[in-house]
Design goal:
The structure is a homotetramer.
Chain A lengths: L10 H12 L4 H24 L2 H32 L3 H6 L1 H8 L2 H8 L23 H44 L9 H12 L12 H17 L1 H17 L38
Helix pairs in contact in A: 1-2, 1-3, 2-3, 7-8, 7-9, 7-10
Chain lengths: 285, 285, 285, 285
Amino acid sequence: MRVTDDAPARSSFKRRLHTIIFEADTPAGKVFDIALLISIVASVVAVCLESVEEYRAQYGRELIFIEWIFTVGFTAEYALRLYCVDKPMRYARSFYGVVDLLSILPTYLSLMFAGTQSLLVIRALRLLRIFRIFKAAQFLAESQLLAMAISASKRKIMVFLGVVTTLIIILGTMMYLVEGGQGGGFTSIPTSIYWAIVTMTTVGYGDIAPVTVLGKFLAAVAMITGYSVIAVPTGIVSVEMARAAQKTGFEVSTQACPSCSLEGHDTDALHCKYCGAAMHPPQEG
Amino acid sequence: MRVTDDAPARSSFKRRLHTIIFEADTPAGKVFDIALLISIVASVVAVCLESVEEYRAQYGRELIFIEWIFTVGFTAEYALRLYCVDKPMRYARSFYGVVDLLSILPTYLSLMFAGTQSLLVIRALRLLRIFRIFKAAQFLAESQLLAMAISASKRKIMVFLGVVTTLIIILGTMMYLVEGGQGGGFTSIPTSIYWAIVTMTTVGYGDIAPVTVLGKFLAAVAMITGYSVIAVPTGIVSVEMARAAQKTGFEVSTQACPSCSLEGHDTDALHCKYCGAAMHPPQEG
Amino acid sequence: MRVTDDAPARSSFKRRLHTIIFEADTPAGKVFDIALLISIVASVVAVCLESVEEYRAQYGRELIFIEWIFTVGFTAEYALRLYCVDKPMRYARSFYGVVDLLSILPTYLSLMFAGTQSLLVIRALRLLRIFRIFKAAQFLAESQLLAMAISASKRKIMVFLGVVTTLIIILGTMMYLVEGGQGGGFTSIPTSIYWAIVTMTTVGYGDIAPVTVLGKFLAAVAMITGYSVIAVPTGIVSVEMARAAQKTGFEVSTQACPSCSLEGHDTDALHCKYCGAAMHPPQEG
Amino acid sequence: MRVTDDAPARSSFKRRLHTIIFEADTPAGKVFDIALLISIVASVVAVCLESVEEYRAQYGRELIFIEWIFTVGFTAEYALRLYCVDKPMRYARSFYGVVDLLSILPTYLSLMFAGTQSLLVIRALRLLRIFRIFKAAQFLAESQLLAMAISASKRKIMVFLGVVTTLIIILGTMMYLVEGGQGGGFTSIPTSIYWAIVTMTTVGYGDIAPVTVLGKFLAAVAMITGYSVIAVPTGIVSVEMARAAQKTGFEVSTQACPSCSLEGHDTDALHCKYCGAAMHPPQEG
C-alpha cells in the first residue's frame, strides 16, 4: 500500500499507473497485484478475527487500527483507479468498481453505526481478481467454458428447481400433518419445509427428525427420491459442459478453412461447412 | 380475483374468456396469469403462516378470513374454467383440473372436519403453471427434454433402486444384529433399515449411529459403498440426457445434404461437410 | 403356497412344473411368480415386525406361527425346484439356489439357537426375481448394461478407492493428533478414521465433530476435497455407461452388413468393418 | 522381514536383490512384495490399536515391542533399497524414498519426544505400492487415465473452488450477522464460515444450525445452491474422463487405414470403414 504517497498528474504517468494498477503483464503490475491480494487476504482475516470474542477482547484496539490502515489504503487505491481510467463512471458502475467501493464503505459507516464492520468481508469478492495474475488467458478460457455451460443449463436447472420446490413444499406439509405435535421438531409448515430441504439435499443436520413410523417411512421415500433426483442437475451440467467444450474448439478440429479461414469444423469434415472448399487438398492429385 | 363479478354468457365472450384464462399470449391473459400466480403464492404463504403457533394466536382470525377470500376466488376461477372450455369433463379429469379442485376443497371440508386447512398447500402444484408465462415454448422444450431423459432412464433407475433396496434391507438387518440393544438406537429391524437409508443416501441425521466397533466398521463399508453407488444414477441420467439432447436436435441439425444426402451437419453449416454442396439452396436459384 | 399338496412324478408333469416354477411366460407361471413375490414380501415384513419390541410382546406367538407357515411353504418350493430341474446340483449351487436354501435355514436353526430368526431377511434377496415378471427381456438388457458399466469401471474404482482409503487413514490420524483429548470424540485413531469416512462421504452424523480451530480447519479442507473427489467415481461410471450404451447398439447403427450380416457398425460407416463390403449400395449405379 | 540377515556385497547379488525388492515380476519379487504389504498393514493396525485407550492399557508393552520389530525391519529394508539401487540419492529423494524414510523416523523420534508414534500411520502411503503386485500394467493404465483426467480438470476445478470459496466466506458472514448471538452456535465469522462449508458440501453435522427464521431461509437457499453446484465438478471430471479415455485409445483404435489413411476405426475393425481396404495386412501376403 506504498502507492498512496506520490500522485503527480501527467498523461504518460496516468498511462503508466493504469498499466500498473489494471494490468498484470508488466513486472510492476504483477508486484502491485500480488501486494493487493495479500492486503485483501490480510484484511479479510483481520475482520474474521475481530468477530471472535476472545481476540476482540485481547487485540480489539489493534484490529481496529489495522482495519483503518487497510481501509485508507483501499480508499487511495480506489481513488487512483478512478483517476487513471479514461471513463471513471464506467469503472465505478462495473462489477469490480461497485465491489471496490463496497469494500471501503463499512469502515466509514462504522463511525456512525456500530456493527457494520462485518460487512467488510465483501472484500473477499475482490479476491476473484486472483486469476489475473498467473496465466490469465488460460483461466479466462476455463471460466468462460464454465460460465457457458452454466448459462446453457440455466433454463433446465430452473425447470428442475421449480418442480423440486413444489415437491418440497408438499412433502414438508405432509410431514407436518404426520409429525406435527409428536416432538420431532415439526412445529409448523415452514419448519417442516426447512426440514424437507435439509433432507432432500442430503445435508441432514438432525436437529429435526421424524419420530413416528409413518413419518420415518415418508422421510425414507423422500431420501431415496432425493438420491435419484440429485442425478438430474449433474446430468444437465455434464451434457452442457461436454457441448461447451466441443464448441470452444477443445474437441473440434483446430484447422481453419484454407479458403475462408473460418474455424470450428468437425474433425471428419472433408469440406468447409461455410464455403464448401475442400479442407485437406490431398497432394494435388 | 376481480374476474368473478361479470359473467354474461355469449359464445364470443366464452372464447375471449378462454383466451384470457387458458392462454398467456395476449396482454390480458398474461395479466390474469400473473395475478393468479401471485394469489397462489399469497395463499400458500397464508396457509404456512397459519401453521405457526404464534401467528395463529395473534392473527388467526385474519388468516382464516384471507383463506376464505382466496378459496372463494379460486372457486369462481374453477367454475369459469369449467364454463369456458368445450369439454368440461376432460378438463376436470386432467392433471391441472384435479389439482384446481383439490385446491379449494380443504377449506370447505374444514367446516366439517378440523385441521384440513393444511391440505391447502396442494395449491403449490398450481405454481407449475408458472412456466407458461415467460417464453413458454422454450421452457416446454427443456421440460420435454428432461422428461424424455428421465423417462428413458426409468427402467434402469428401477433396476438400480431394486438392487439398492435389497442391499439396504440386508444391511439394516445386519446392523440390528450387531448393534441391537447397544444403546445406539438400533431398536428394531425397521428402525435399522431407516438408518441404512439415512446413511446410504448420505443424509446422516445422527439420531441413530453405531456405537460398537463392528457396527462402525459395517457403517464405514456401507458409506463407502453408497459413495461409489451414488455415481450410478448420475451416470444413467447423464447418458440419457446426452441422448435426449441429440434426438431433439439441439446438438446437430437433422437436415440432410440435398446433394449427397449425408446427415450429421452442425446447425450452422452452410455447406455439406462431405461433398461441399450448398446446404440451404436459397430462393430456388 | 397351494402347490405343495399334489406331487405325482411323471416326466410331462415335471416339465409342466418346471414351466410354472421357473418361467414367467405362461399365465400359470406368472400367477406362481406373483404369489411367490407376495409371500416373500409378507414374510420379510413379518420378520421385521417381530424385531419391534411392542409387536413381539403383543403378537409374538402369531408372528412365529406365520414364520413357520412361510418356512414350510418355501421348503416345499425349494424341494419342488430341486425335483423338477434336470441338474439339481447346478441349481443348488447357483446364486438363487443358495439364496433359496439360506431363506429357510434360519427358522430351523432357531429351534436350536435363539435369535437366528432375523437372518430370515436374507429372503429379501429373492425379491430380485421380480424383474422376471414384467417385460423380463427389457429389464435384463438394462441390468446387463448396468452390470457391464460397473464391471468396466471396477479397476478404476478400485484405484480410486485405494487412494481415497490411504487419504482417509492419514486424515484420521492427523485429526487424532490435533483433536485427541479435546472432548470432540476423537478418542483413538480408529474412531478418527471412522469420522474421516463419515465426513468424506458427506454423511456427517455429528456424533463426532472437531472442536479446536485447527481441527475445524482440517475438517473444512477434507470436506471440500471430498466434495470435489465425489466427482471422480461419477465421472468414471458415466463414461463407462455411455460406452456400454454404445456397445449394446443403442447409439451405434442398427444396420447389419448386407454381405456378412455382422452388426455394430458406426453410423458413418460406408464399408463393413469386418468384410469390407459396401454398406449402402447406392441405387445400383 | 527375514531379508535382513545376509548381505554379502557382489554385483550380481546386488542385481538380484534389486529384482526382488523393486520388481514384482519374479516369484521371489512377488513374495517379497506381498510380505512387505502384509507387514505394512500389520504395523498400521498396530499403531491404530495402540491409540485406543483400553488396548494401550492392556497390551501397551507388546504393541511397543511389535512396533520396534517393524521399525527395525523397515529400516533394514530401507538400507537394502539404498544399497542396491545405482543412484541412492535419486531414490532417497523420490516420493516413495521419502515416504519410506518417514515411515521409520517416528519410532526413533519417540525415544526423545513422547507421542510421535501416531505419525507412523504415514506408512499407509506405502500401501499404494499394492497396485504393483497384480496385473500392474492394467492398473497403471487406469491410474494414468484417472491422473490425466484430474490433471486436465485442475484449472477448471480451481476456478470453481475459487468462486465457491468466495461465496462461502460471504455466506458465512451473512449467517453470522443474522444468527450471531441467537444461540445457534454462530459465535464468530470463522465458525460461521466453517458452518457454511459443512452445509454447502452437504456434510451437515448439526452441531451448528440456524435457529432464526431468516437464518433458516438463508440456509435453505445455500443448500439448494450447493445441491445444484455439486453438479459442476462432476460435469468437469466426466467430460475430462471421457476425453482421456478417448485419447488413450480405449475407445477407438489409433491405427490409420493403410490405404486411405483415415483414422477413427474401432479396435475390432478388420476393414477400413471409409474405403473398405483390409486394416491388418496379415503375414505380408
